[in-house]
Specification:
Arc Repressor Mutant, subunit A; ADP-ribosylation fold; 2 domains; 6 helices
Length: 219
């Protein structure tokens, strides 16, 4: 198992065991996520991740000393070690007055005219607070734009929102008129999820005593 395979294994574990919302993944009731959706999320990081492929996943799984993940057809899941507070429920619910979305600056240009769209996913992913949106946005850009959604007005106009478990909210889409750019928090205390290098991504790895955040290459 190469160093790149170790990094990929940690990325899969982080996304499927702990924070799928950070990658805007949509896990089903058995923890499965679409492979294409997961690979697209990794490629958004750029640099070494731009060329990650299904073949890389298959090699990582075949050379792993321990069976941590399962790849079946067009789906992938973690087999154990989950710390998720609950499954993605997708229940239509009255949203809070405001929701947030973190994205890259170039994407904000498109959102201003077309609104927020699922873009290959089943739903548009939204965050309950700015810190979560900032974490999601940083996976897409070193200088993300945090968008504020007037969820109360959108819901009153007929946009359906779904609660997916804190801190995730979903919508089929949000028209541009309900979206504005929010300023980034002045005192950002949220640890960076990653940089442009695969070696600096904050990931989780399973230990015998439990799951703890570790830096790639630390063991």
């Amino acid at each position: 198992m190469t160093a790149a395979d170790v990094d990929l294994s940690r990325a899969v574990s982080h996304a499927l065991r702990h924070e799928p919302w950070l990658y805007e993944l949509e896990l089903d009731e058995e923890g499965w996520a679409p492979v294409g959706q997961f690979l697209a999320a990794l490629r958004e990081k750029g640099q070494d991740w731009e060329t990650v492929s299904r073949a890389d996943l298959e090699r990582m799984l075949s050379t792993a000393a321990k069976r941590r993940h399962e790849l079946k057809g067009d789906r992938i899941r973690a087999l154990y070690g989950h710390s998720l507070p609950g499954r993605l429920r997708k229940q239509p619910t009255v949203p809070p007055a405001r929701l947030f979305h973190g994205t890259a600056p170039q994407t904000w240009t498109a959102v201003k005219s077309s609104g927020l769209l699922p873009m290959g996913r089943q739903f548009t992913h939204l965050s309950a607070d700015r810190e979560t949106a900032l974490a999601v946005g940083r996976r897409k850009s070193a200088t993300p734009v945090i968008l504020k959604v007037d969820a109360a007005a959108a819901a009153a106009a007929g946009v359906v929102f779904y609660t997916a478990g804190d801190p995730v909210w979903l919508a089929d889409g949000v028209p541009a008129r309900y979206i504005t750019a929010a300023s980034q928090p002045a005192n950002d205390r949220f640890a960076e999820v990653g940089s442009d290098s695969r070696n600096n991504i904050r990931l989780f790895c399973s230990h015998s005593s439990g799951d703890h955040p570790v830096a790639p290459g630390s063991r």
